[in-house]
Amino acid sequence: AVNYGAILQAVALYQKLEELGADVEIVDYSNRSKSIMDLNFIDTLKKRGLKKAIEYTFIHKNRMIRKVKLQFFLKKHAKVSKEAYTVENIKSADQKYDRFIVGSDQIFDIDKTAHDKNFLLDFVSDSKKKYSYAASSGRVDEKCITEISKYLKDFNMVSVREKGLQERLIKSLEKKVYRHVDPTFFYNKKFWSQYAIPPKEKNYILIYTLSKSKDLLKAARDFAKEKGKKIIIISGRAEIFTGMKKVTRASIEEFLGYFLYADYVFTNSFHGTAFSIIMQKNFSVGLHKDEKMGNGRMQTLLDVLGLEECYLKYEDGKVVENQIAYKEVEKIIKKEVECSEEYLASIINN
After folding, report:
1. pLDDT tens digits, one per residue of 269-278
2. How far out from the chain centre does Cα 114 lie?
3. Do 226 and 315 touch, CB atoms closer than 8 A?
4. Considering the entire predicted model, what is its pTM?
5. CA-based diameter of the chain, in Å?
6. In sequence order, what are the residues at sequence separation of 6 or more whose Cβ sits closer than 8 angstroms to the Cβ of residue 155?
7. Which residues of the chain have pLDDT under 70?
8. 3-state secondary structure of 78
9. DSSP 250
């Protein structure tokens, strides 16, 4: 996916598996012909209507530039398979690897994967080779649970990211389902900061959103006005954001830099929330009104880390500025990471 979190979690999981002693590759698999993320104008017009097709025209060039930058970071910091696999030849990968791990992003979201069963390791013949790590479905509904359960029953071990997904799968699969921390938390502020490029801007509030949110934008504007700060928004959408600088082509290094040097963050993204925490920022999270976007990932993360106060809220007409005691948060993250490392080590050493 052309998404900062998708690349960063992949690199983090890759590097952690290497540290634990595995010889690791990221399987370069694409079902692009099915994916709504890579449709051309005509396909977008047919499948999603005129409005989305026009939006595609405006964002396509920036998206392709961003895609090149993100893939460069991935290939620089992780080993990607020389073979480019497709629906037609993915079965040949089964003979090459001793273990397969799917995760840790929304790989269980059947709409995002276009119901492609290869993301659920259907091409792997031996169930002992099948694992997931902190995989997400984005949202949890009966249709999704029913479909993914058919394939997850054949997994050796299943690990997910959301509590809600974990609970539903335990009932459906009738076996143990683990919940683990996103791989980006394997590494701390110091580690990720080594990649960060300092932005030219200073004294700014950062917004990072995956879906439109008038409430979040209003809150950021109100907060920035009160504090006398500029606003930078990282967004790949065609939307025009009045009174703030829009960043559409940031590299991974620039993305990390914007978080590292922000004075405060407003986000409705899981990895926006994650990197606010990793970079030890004070931040506010706005939940999605559209259930399809899925709030469970962020809710689980904030609940586990004891950061429930970080949901966006107003008091006396002003945005509540959260002040986070990160020493306590770090202790919880350490325990989560230790548990997650044990799980990954068991896959390698089993």
Report:
1. 999 999 999 9
2. 18
3. no
4. 0.92
5. 63
6. 121, 127, 130, 131, 132
7. 32-48, 50-58, 238, 289-294
8. coil
9. -
